[in-house]
Design brief:
- The protein has about 190 residues and is mainly beta.
- It is about 10% helix and about 35% strand.
- The protein has one domain: Sulfite Oxidase, Chain A, domain 2, CATH 3.90.420.
- The strands form two sheets. Strands 1, 4, 5, 8, 9 and 10 form a six-stranded mixed sheet that branches. A five-stranded mixed sheet has the order 3-2-11-6-7.
- β8 and β9 form a beta hairpin.
- The longest helix has 6 residues.
């Protein structure tokens, strides 16, 4: 496959790639960023939403991380820009232990709140210094790089905070509930 290296991965794991394949481009968002918003709802006193302009005004971070796909590829040293989920979650007190990320197109994925806090997750709108392209989740996507990439929902629109876990789209079809690439948690039972 073009763009993939045959170099061995340390001890175990996927080959790395120079280009991140786009595995879901059959549906692309038709809205522009101006009409986009991000909402936190569920186990909160009141749902809170940020418009595109409000999102753009929040403190931003630029950072470099590796991403890992369940289909056994890894892309090293990806530079993203966006807003830490800590910023959003700090504005919405909640007793919730779990979140279901929801996106345009109906996609959902579940993530423990602990995996979204502590500088471990962001809402990103730039990759490599450019606006995030729609086929890769633009105008904004969730990024949780320490978990397999299906947990980093494209076309993100919000989080539904919950006291108990609820499987997302792929988890209902047998993907692992946690998705830790270092434990190779691809499928239920791994």
């Amino acid at each position: 496959m073009a763009g993939f290296s045959s170099a061995p991965w340390p001890e175990f794991g996927p080959p790395y790639t120079l280009q991140a394949p786009c595995l879901a481009e059959s549906w692309q968002m038709s809205e522009d960023g101006i009409t986009w918003d991000f909402t936190i709802r569920g186990a909160v006193d009141h749902p809170v939403s940020w418009s595109w302009a409000e999102f753009q005004a929040l403190p931003r971070e630029t950072f470099t991380v590796d991403i890992h796909c369940v289909t056994k590829w890894t892309k090293l040293d990806m530079t993203w820009s966006g807003v830490s989920l800590d910023t959003f979650l700090d504005a919405v007190p909640t007793p919730a232990s779990y979140a279901v990320a929801f996106s345009d197109g109906g996609y959902t994925t579940n993530v423990p709140v602990a995996d979204l806090r502590g500088g471990k997750a962001w809402i990103v709108d730039e990759y490599d210094g450019r606006p995030l392209e729609p086929e890769h989740g633009g105008p904004a996507r969730l990024l949780v790089p320490h978990l397999y990439f299906w947990k980093s929902a494209k076309w993100i629109r919000g989080l539904d905070l919950r006291p108990t876990d609820q499987p997302g789209f792929w988890e209902m079809f047998g993907y692992h509930n946690s998705g830790d690439p270092w434990k190779e948690q691809r499928y239920s039972g791994d």
